[in-house]
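thought: fold this chain, then report.
action: predict
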Amino acid sequence: MFWDWDFAISITPTLLQGLKITILATVLGAIVAAVLGLVFAILRRSTNRLISRTTGFVVEFIRGTPLLVQLYFIFYILPDFGLRLPPLTAGVIGMGLHYATYFSEVYRGGIESVARGQWEAARAGNLNPRQTWVHVILPQAIPPMIPAMANYLLAMFKETPLLTAITVMEMMSQARSVANTSYRYVEPMTLVGVFFLIISIFSVFGLRWLERKFGGRAR
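observation:
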């Protein structure tokens, strides 16, 4: 038969183990991207031109090079300089750093959408920079950013198969391992596509809910 249900069922637990790694890498990568993206956005707003321009160059350089090349650099080249990272750690850092450049643009747009009067009110209230950011600017800037960030989170999830290039045993790696061992490619690759599709469909509904809840606040 072209499709073997018994074989498909037998390999499902293996693929689900890979799916756990896929989701873990996505979540951890998103956390790294969210934190670094905010740092990039704040540094680019610095009044010190050296800091702002250097940060802008770094952001554009990372965003302008392929994620796969960055993963190779972190996992295969950094060890030559004495920095050897486990595959999953390297993957999380690579994805997080890459998407931080996109998150930084989302942050920048959200921050610039805050009315100038809010900054002036914070100064009039004698708030220091940290208090201004934490209590005035970010609470107003973050809600409109959430739909865009969720879109990038979904994009990051779809790009996790690139981690197979640095030996992370995520779902695609598990499928390739099964296929290379059994010489059957239809079932594992189809199941991987189905798992990605199911999660993406649920994510789309979540994105639409976020857009309804927070999207209006951007205006």
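thought: worth noting. The chain is about 80% helix and 0% strand.
final: tokens above.
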